[in-house]
Write a structure and sequence with these properties.
This protein is mainly alpha-helical. It has helices at 35-41, 44-53, 61-71, 77-84, 92-103, 115-140, 154-163, 169-182, 189-198, 204-216, 223-234, 240-249, 267-283, 287-306, 314-324, 332-353, and strands spanning 19-22, 27-30, 33-34. A hairpin with a 2-residue loop joins β2 and β3. The structure holds coenzyme A (COA).
Length: 395
């Protein structure tokens, strides 16, 4: 196949009104609004409304939306009880994935596939995913789960359910900005997975379950966990350059660097870098400084050795930032999901209810069959006893 199209690069698979990325100029736009304007003026709740319903809310629409989010925060008690029986070593992304699929059991209108029913489902999931993540964190550490508050915004409620302590206004604001920044990013791997599943007319819980699986991989949302592991391994800022050189010399990748779309700085990483700098100074930790040195060392190495420009992506600075907020490392990716659910559900609704032609159809790409042992076709079937051993199956 054409090498330019590997991984579906350079192929437009659908029209979307939700998000636009200008990878050459480092611009990210949600429904027409620049991400930097949303960071400066909006909140995660308002941004979710914008993504889901297509416009910024007016008059009482935002308070109504926020009220609905607050009212939907609690989990079915049976789901919480089943969580207690899981092995405490279960990965948070796996627990999140199966719990989201389990929420379908409690949806009494599962056969209702209207737009309105799907918007209700999206609100329910935006609201409940943080509760699942916080409940699992406490359950696996043998701590009582903390019920969601009926006040407080989305960001501060999550931080409260995680630690049992009300966050400061500053902590809640920083976390809210992180949620805005991660909420949407066009046809990334997990969103494409969600839309691909939606194209079969599967229900929203299945689509989101698939998206969570895609997000967990280290080339996608899982990268932020690997970034923090790298920072911990480096530990001392002066070690950063040697660590990076060694990793790249031996053919490894530097997680948090590079992007399939941005060919310049990812605007999200600039904001996260500023926030990480503030928090790292306040907490007197080394994580921001190491991250900065990793960024610089990777860029210098790649330019010198491979004549390739490379830039940090959203995962590079979020790792240090979350660590300085005392968030356990393996919750970095579930937190990505807490935010990205807004984008995923908006895309599922767009996929199911696109108004203008060309309307989406069932995704069914072609593959170029290249055969393996005996060319493209025409293999003659030989009975098992007559077959020669051609290759050992690994034991
Ligand atoms: C995200 C990513 C998969 C995008 O890659 P891409 O632009 O589609 O390009 P490719 O994966 O085809 O890589 C192109 C070249 O750049 C190199 N490269 C890209 N990112 C790199 C990184 N982080 N570290 C080292 N080399 C990298 C690759 O090794 C490859 O070289 P090769 O052609 O000699 O194999 C890639 O940059 C990456 O693996 N980054 C680290 C994981 C990560 O942070 N993921 C989160 C993304 S938001």
């Amino acid at each position: 196949m054409d090498a330019r199209n590997i991984g579906l690069r350079n192929i437009e698979v659908a029209d979307t009104k939700i998000c636009s990325i200008d990878g050459n100029n480092g611009k990210l736009i949600y429904r027409g609004y620049d991400i930097l304007d949303l960071v400066n003026h909006s909140t995660f709740e308002e941004t979710s409304y914008l993504l889901l319903l297509g416009e910024l809310p007016r008059n009482g629409q935002l308070s109504d939306f926020s009220r609905r989010l607050r009212e939907a925060r609690a989990l079915p008690p049976e789901l919480l009880a089943r969580m207690k029986n899981r092995r405490h070593t279960a990965r948070p992304m796996d627990v999140l994935q199966s719990s989201v699929c389990e929420l379908a059991d409690y949806d009494t209108d599962l056969d209702d596939d209207t737009k309105e029913a799907n918007i209700n489902r999206a609100i329910n999931l935006i609201s409940k995913i943080p509760t699942i993540v916080a409940a699992w964190e406490r359950t696996r550490n043998n701590k009582e789960t903390i019920s969601p508050t009926s006040e407080g915004d989305h960001a501060s409620n999550f931080l409260y359910m995680l630690s049992g302590t009300k966050p400061t206004l500053k902590e809640a604001k920083i976390f809210d900005i992180c949620l805005i920044l991660h909420a949407e990013h066009s046809f990334n791997a997990s969103t494409f997975a969600a839309r691909e599943i939606a194209s079969t007319r599967a229900h929203m819980y299945s689509c989101i379950g698939g998206a969570i699986g895609a997000l967990s991989g280290e080339l996608h949302g899982g990268a932020n966990v690997q970034v923090m592991k790298m920072l911990l391994e480096i530990n001392d800022p002066p070690n950063a350059e040697r660590w990076v050189k060694n990793r790249l010399d031996t053919g490894g990748r530097i997680m948090g660097m590079g992007h399939a779309v941005y060919k310049t700085t990812d605007p999200r990483s600039e904001v996260l870098s500023r926030l990480s700098k503030i928090l790292s100074r306040e907490k007197k930790t080394q994580w921001f400084e190491i991250t900065e040195r990793v960024e610089r060392a990777t860029q210098q190495y790649m330019m010198k050795e491979r004549k390739q420009a490379i830039y940090p992506n959203v995962d590079l600075y979020s790792a240090a930032l979350y660590h300085d907020m005392d968030i356990p490392i393996d919750l970095n990716t579930p937190i990505f999901a807490i935010s990205r659910i807004a984008g995923w559900s908006s895309h599922i609704i767009e996929e199911k209810f696109a108004e203008a032609a060309p309307k989406p159809a069932l995704y069914r790409p072609k593959a170029l069959y290249v055969g393996r042992y005996c060319g493209p076709m025409g293999c003659e079937y030989t009975p098992l006893a007559d077959r020669e051993l051609v290759e050992k199956i690994p034991q």
